[in-house]
Write a structure and sequence with these properties.
With 119 residues, this protein is mostly helical. The chain has 4 helices and 2 strands, in the order E-H-E-H-H-H. The chain has a domain of 80 residues. Strand 1, helix 1 and strand 2 form a beta-alpha-beta unit. Helix 1 runs parallel beside helix 3.
Length: 119
Amino acid sequence: MPEEGAGAEETVRALWAKSYCPLRPRCRGGPSWHADLLFEVVTRRHEKKRSIVLTTNKAFAEWPTTFPNAACVVALVDRLINRADVVVIDGESYRLHEAEERQRVKATARKKGKDRPVR
């Protein structure tokens, strides 16, 4: 019988690690509070042998800069990679490619606009 409560029948939890900048101490306990919260979610999923899909643009070695002063970072990473399939995607950023293309189009349009004769 599944547990009662939200997500009782959930078999996979998807998480997005917002790691493009360090978390700022805006609410509650700041960055270490965020790490503690993520640690709690990961620990509960780990204990019940439930799946987690997590995406991040930071290597695990860089997590201490994302969660500064968080004592649980090592244990958090340990629980995440235990029984895990880690897929590292190393390649050119599709978003970067699109942004560069937009810049080229804008520059070309500006240049054409300057070449027009003034009436």
